[in-house]
Structure formats: C-alpha cells, structure tokens
Amino acid sequence: MNTIQHSSQHGQGPPGVQGAIGPEGATGPGVINWLGDWDAGTAYEVNDAVVHEGSSYICVGAHTGSEPPSVEWDSLGAMGATGATGVTGATGTIGPVGSTGPQGVQGPMGPQGNVGGVGATGGDGATGSQGATGTTGVTGATGTTGVTGATGATGPQGVIGPQGGGGPIGATGDQGAGANVPNAPGGDGIYVLEVSGGGAIFTWITHP
C-alpha cells in the first residue's frame, strides 16, 4: 500500500499490459544508387539519388531532364539553415616546395616598349674584302669648250725646201731703175732681190 500510494501521489500508475504486434509496414525503396549532382542530360531510373541546390532527392519515376523537386523525385533531405561560422583553426605548417611544373604555353606578344637611349659607339670593325668591280657607268655629257689659250711662241724657221720648177714667164714689167747683179759665187743657188729704201739688195741663197 505504501508503494501504491507513493506512486499515486506522483500521477503515474503501474505499467500496463503489452499490446499486440502491429501489421508489417510497406516495403522500402531498396538500395539507393547515389549519382551526385543532378544533370539535365542524364536518364534517371527509380532509386537513383542526386543532390540539387543543397537538397537530396530519390527518383520515383524513370525520366530524363525533370529538375527536382518534381513528381519524378521524392525528397531525401532538405538543406538545413547555414550554421554559424566556426572558429578559425590554427595555421598549419608550410609544406615542402613542390617540383617545378612543365613550362606553360607562350603567351601573346606584349605591346612594343619605349625606345631606349642611344648606346655607346662600338669600335671600328675589320676592313672587309674588296668587292667585285662594278659595271662601267654611262658616259657623261660633253662639257663646255674651255677658254682659248694664249698664242704660243713662234717656232724656229724650218729648212728651206728645194727650188720649185720655173713658173711661166710673166708679163714684161715697166722698166725700173738699173741695178747691177753681182756674179754668182758658184754652186747651186739663187739670188733673192730685196728692194728697200729705193735700192736693191741681192742675197745669194745656196740650195741645201
């Protein structure tokens, strides 16, 4: 009695009799085929499962291109609210330097830079070998005639040539003043008459 009264004071009665076993529940969906992110081009079968925009879905009707949520999909779990940002963890130790990767593809040529200053003049290079003789150029135009030079000095008198044949006898001239012709000194020669100052001078010229 003491025990029963104590329990009654707290509002709890004694344990009841165990009830009968209930009927068997419906068969579950079977093995889930997890396929990751939903893709519009994939043909989905029943029991294929995907995730889309943070919620997971299981296919209940074969199809292609039906974006969840839809009649072909049942929800497996909706995305929960974003939790509070956790405490920043301690910085990890720096890992070893990785090996150098392969050289990348050469990028496009950059714009041309500014022109640099003029460098110092280099030393004279060695003299090159003489090139082949070029073709003769076109003859230039004839220049203008130069000024006539001064007359040169008279040259020495040349040797007297042989006496020519006798010319025809000229007409008889007027009788002049008489002149004594000296006798020829002899040899092959000729007298030359020179009239000067009203007198006559005979000069004997020997033939060479």
Low-pLDDT segments: 1-9
Q: Calculate the mean pLDDT score and round it.
A: 79
Helix/strand-derived class? mainly beta
How many angstroms separate the termini? 205 Å
Number of helices: 1
What order do the SSEs take from the amino end to the carboxyl end, as H and E? HEEEEEEEE
Largest sheet: 4 strands, mixed
- Report the strand count: 8
As a percent range, the share of strand residues is: 15-25%
* Rg, Å, rounded: 74 Å
Could you say which overall geometry the principal axes of the C-alpha atoms support? rod-shaped
Helix content: under 10%
Task: Kindly report the spatial arrangement of strands forming the biggest sheet.
Answer: 1-3-4-6
Give a brief description.
This protein has one helix and eight strands; from the N terminus they run H-E-E-E-E-E-E-E-E. The chain is mostly beta strands and 208 residues long.
Describe this structure in words.
The protein has 208 residues and is mainly beta. 4% of the residues lie in helices and 19% in strands. It is built from 1 helix and 8 strands; from the N terminus they run H-E-E-E-E-E-E-E-E. It has one helix at residues 2-9; strands spanning 33-37, 43-44, 48-52, 55-59, 63-64, 73-77, 189-196, 199-206. The strands form 3 sheets. The protein has a 4-stranded mixed sheet, with no helix packed on it. It has a two-stranded antiparallel ribbon with strand order 2-5. A hairpin with a 2-residue loop joins strand 3 (48-52) and strand 4. The longest helix has 8 residues, at 2-9. It starts with a helix and ends with a strand. Mean pLDDT is 79; it is low at 1-9.
